[in-house]
Amino acid sequence: MSKRVGIEVSLAIGDAVRLANADVIAAYPITPQTHIVEHLAELVANGELDAEYIPVESEHSAMSACLGASAVGARTFTATAGQGLELMHEVLYVASSMRLPVIMAVANRALSAPLSVWGDQSDVMAVRDTGWIQLFVENGQETVDNVLCAFRIGEDPRVLLPVMVHLDGFYLSHVIEAVLFPEQSQVDRFLPPFKHPVPLHPDRPVTMGAFAMPIIYSEAKWAQEVNLEAAKEVIFECWGEFGKLFGRNYSPVEHYRSDDARVLLLTLGGFSETAMTAVDKMRGEGKSVGLVRLRLWRPFPFAEIRQAVKNAEVLIVLDRAISFGGPGGPVCSEVRSALYGEAKKPKVIGFIGGLGGRDITPSGFEEIINRGIEIAQRGSDREFEIFGVRE
Amino acid sequence: MTKPEGALTWKDINIGAIVSEPGNASQYRTGDWRSERPIFDSRKCIRCGICYIFCPEGCVGQNAEGYFEADLFYCKGCGICALECWTKAITMVAEEQ
């Protein structure tokens, strides 16, 4: 049976990777990801995880080493955050384009300057278009569950794509939570061994990452797009299977008291749980308010988002990253564009908040919702507002 | 390759654009990058082979008489052979001529 333990979420990720029996871990420590890879280094050093731990000199090297490992068919894991994810940037595209299912936990962190080690989602949004499958989690249990799911999804022969599991730096990575760990035998049943169909092997030489001329590059990119879109089905199938085995269900767009709500708030990640408290309070006061949380960021769940918000009058989207000089937060702008062609759709109001470790309390979420309703009624001369900024 | 590159659709591309046939770069015509081609003058050529040594493409070889010439399927027209030739036996000529 599953075992329930109180554990720091970063360490729980390490233990989940041990249960997944990863073969290679290449990582460079960076706040707030450090405890994840420290714990993995410890597990390998203690002989509790039979894996190669490659201590590299940078995140660029970490991801490059992961590519090589994955290319020979090793189950590969890494973790990073903020600036580290940015230093990996060019290699991230290579992982997805070469169809190498590297699994990575990202402890979401703000980007410099000014230097901030604290949480927001600027790092995520900067790697939006790298072709990785990207999932958000909200608590320790979801993190462990989805790290296990990430291996199964990414390594599925129909998918073969790298997966990022995004968790809030500090807010989630450094908190101690009660987590149910599955038994090794359960994980072994859920997670078949990784078998790359065309691995690097001296007996069967192949060339990976060769160049492509203009005559073939577009076809290669379209193949990649079709593949990432098709991964949706496998992701849903995996979550379905996970729910059957472990009783915890996941979906690309999660709902909280949203079915009959006239006003909806949309969030990603751990802040969602705080937003639920605000929704509960407002519901208690008779206000028709609900919450929608985006779990699957890439591939983007167009149909599910449209379905989730179609009956609402106002949809308030909270981004924790800015697209400078653009239409506001990246999530808001994507949701708005997904709804543009719909006949029946809510007014979409964009907020940015929770930047660089700034908290949003339940009363803060109430303020955001109330202000969003006000903007929906009276309009605003701004594309978006930053919640709580001192002007 | 079963089809020429120009006939491949996205469905024909291997997973991750992996090249599964070793050595198939030899089928790749780099000659059409060329704007100038080398003309070898056998009257000036002393068969020293300096053009063969310097050719970065490895496309210069010796013919039956021992004189050197470039394989125009691969020759990119860089002109290094002409620059290095002691006796000025190689002249670069614009492709349109």
Question: How is this structure best described in words?
Answer:
The complex is a heterodimer of chains A (about 400) and B (about 100). Chain A is α/β, with parallel strands linked by helices. Chain A folds into two domains: about 5-245, Thiamin diphosphate (ThDP)-binding fold, Pyr/PP domains (Rossmann fold, 3-Layer(aba) Sandwich), CATH 3.40.50.970; about 255-385, Rossmann fold, CATH 3.40.50. Chain A contains 13 helices and 15 strands. In chain A, the strands form three sheets. Chain A has a seven-stranded mixed β-sheet with strand order 3-2-4-5-7-6-12, sandwiched between helices. Chain A has a six-stranded mixed β-sheet with strand order 9-11-10-13-14-15, with helices on both faces. A two-stranded antiparallel ribbon of chain A has the order 1-8. In chain A, helix 12 (about 330-340) links the parallel strand 13 (about 315-320) and strand 14 (about 345-350). In chain A, helix 1 packs across helix 2 (about 35-45). The longest helix of chain A is centred in the middle third of the chain and has 33 residues, at about 215-245. The mean pLDDT of chain A is about 95. By secondary structure, chain B is of the alpha+beta class. Chain B has a domain at about 30-95: 2-Layer Sandwich (Alpha-Beta Plaits). Helix content of chain B is about 10%, strand content about 15%. Chain B is built from two helices and four strands; from the N terminus they run E-H-E-E-H-E. In chain B, the strands form two sheets. Chain B has a two-stranded antiparallel ribbon with strand order 1-4. In chain B, strands 2-3 form a two-stranded antiparallel ribbon. In chain B, a hairpin with a 5-residue loop joins strand 2 (about 60) and strand 3 (about 70). Chain B is elongated, with a radius of gyration of 17 Å. Chain B starts with about 35 loop residues before the first strand and ends with a strand. The chains are: A alpha/beta (about 400), B alpha+beta (about 100). Chains A and B meet through helix 9 of A and loops of B.
